[in-house]
Amino acid sequence: MTTIDFSPLLRSMIGFDRLSNALETAYRTEPGGYPPYNVEVSGENDYRITMAVAGFAEKDLSIEAKENILTVSGNRSEDEEQQDTRFLYRGIANRSFERKFQLADYVRVVEAHLENGLLHVQLRREIPEAMKPRKIEIGSAKQPERLVDTSETGGLKAAA
């Protein structure tokens, strides 16, 4: 297994310690799988996940967002009508699935809808006002007070 050393990057990147774990997880994850899906960017802060879930009804699907992980799962039971059916060939998958997506900070699910066998999950990145860039004014530093000798005995007084 190949190990990637991120220590040179982490010297100048503060707060990205989860980045190396996320990249290693992505490296180990196999691409593809069931069901097939697309991830689309539709704007600067808008995303959409489209999953091909033919044969699943809304009641068979579940979407949960928890701690920056979006989990889409489908659980379909065999219909009573199909239990009596004998298949010569079965090419349409009738299996349950669970697919997880790692979401960045401040990405939330806006809506989800099922249309023509495709599940669309709309996502939006909403950065809080406190996290947005802001201009910092640069002020001049106060000059430290100078002390001057005011008497012959060495008395000190702040100069104006």
What does the model show?
- It is a single chain.
- With 160 residues, this protein is mainly beta.
- It folds into 2 domains: 1-31, no CATH class; 35-129, Immunoglobulin-like (Sandwich).
- The chain is built from 3 helices and 9 strands; from the N terminus they run ααββββαβββββ.
- The strands form 3 sheets. A 4-stranded antiparallel β-sheet has the order 1-2-7-6, with no helix packed on it. Strands 3-4-5 form a 3-stranded antiparallel β-sheet, with no helix packed on it. Strands 8-9 form a two-stranded antiparallel sheet.
- Strand 8 (147-149) and strand 9 form a beta hairpin.
- The longest helix has 12 residues, at 17-28.
- Enumerate how many helices there are, as a single number: 3
Overall body shape: elongated
The average pLDDT value, as a whole number, equals: 79
N→C terminal distance: 71 Å
Q: Can you name the CATH architecture of the largest domain?
A: Sandwich
State the major sheet: 4 strands, antiparallel
Output the structural class: mainly beta
How many runs of DSSP E, i.e. beta strands? 9
Q: Which H/E pattern describes the elements?
A: HHEEEEHEEEEE
Note the beta-strand portion. Answer: 25-35%
- Point out poorly predicted stretches: none
* Largest beta sheet: strand ordering: 1-2-7-6
CATH class of the largest domain: Mainly Beta
> What proportion of the residues is helical, as a percent range?
10-25%
Cα-atom Rg, whole angstroms?
Answer: 30 Å
Number of domains: 2
Q: What is the third-level CATH name, the topology of the largest domain?
A: Immunoglobulin-like
